[in-house]
Design goal:
Length: 238
């Protein structure tokens, strides 16, 4: 059992996740997208280590679980939503008037569906070794990297395409699409070939720089969907 000091370490790391997410929101409004994306990356690192630390120290708690979900919705829901809102409001539609001024607020659906995704995850016993729906950190990294590294390209896209992409990713968050986890139980090729292939191609995609992060998330979604379709067409015979 964790002692009085060590039991607070996982929650402290979770609070760092939350703090980094809050800073991301400010960076987004200030148009400092690179720093905003960096904050999301830091939040993802803190999110990984708070759970790892809790397991290592046997310091699980109900409060810790609640704080983790609240922090994740700020860091991986509100923060990327703020980045997309700032991009649409100040870069894509800077001179919008009337009804057009309302379109940037669609970005906050990302925060809403991230909260729904987190609530679903917390109450779904199936998602211990894999996921159903897109994990919120992956969604946050996609939008953070897109706004930071692909903004010039996105400026040339029709507004309806961007809105459609937001809606598709919101659906992916709460969908029943099976998505594999990167948790390794061992390092054998036989048990982890899917993860090794994914990571190898992901490393190659990083050569594209910041846009490569968005490409990695698309690769993750495509690979997961491909595996699901293959399993649907080739059901296992018990």
């Amino acid at each position: 059992m964790a002692n009085k000091f060590t039991k607070h370490i996982p929650n402290t790391i979770t609070c760092l996740n939350l703090f980094s997410g809050c800073i991301c929101c400010v960076m987004a409004i200030w148009h400092m997208y690179e720093f905003a994306l960096l904050c999301i990356i830091f939040s993802a690192i803190f999110d990984f280590f708070d759970g790892l630390t809790a397991r290592a120290l046997d310091a699980h708690s109900i409060i810790g679980k609640d704080i983790d979900s609240l922090a994740d919705d700020i860091s991986f829901g509100l923060a990327p939503a703020m980045m997309v809102f700032a991009f649409l409001k100040y870069d894509y539609l800077p001179d919008a008037v009337g009804f057009m001024e309302l379109f940037p607020f669609i970005a906050f659906l990302i925060a809403v569906f991230s909260a729904l995704r987190l609530a679903k995850f917390n109450n779904d016993s199936r998602q211990t070794t894999s996921f159903y729906g897109l994990p919120v950190p992956a969604n946050a990294l996609f939008w953070g990297a897109s706004v930071t590294g692909l903004s010039n390209w996105m400026l040339n896209l029709p507004l309806l395409i961007i809105i459609f992409a937001i809606l598709v990713f919101c659906w992916l968050l709460v969908s029943e699409l099976p998505m594999f986890s990167l948790k390794f139980k061992n390092l054998t090729w036989a048990d982890n070939k899917l993860r090794f292939v994914f990571l190898a191609i992901s490393v190659a995609l990083l050569f594209f720089g910041i846009p490569g992060i968005a490409l990695i998330i698309l690769w993750y979604i495509t690979l997961s969907a491909g595996i699901w379709m293959f399993d649907m067409l080739n059901p296992k015979v018990e």
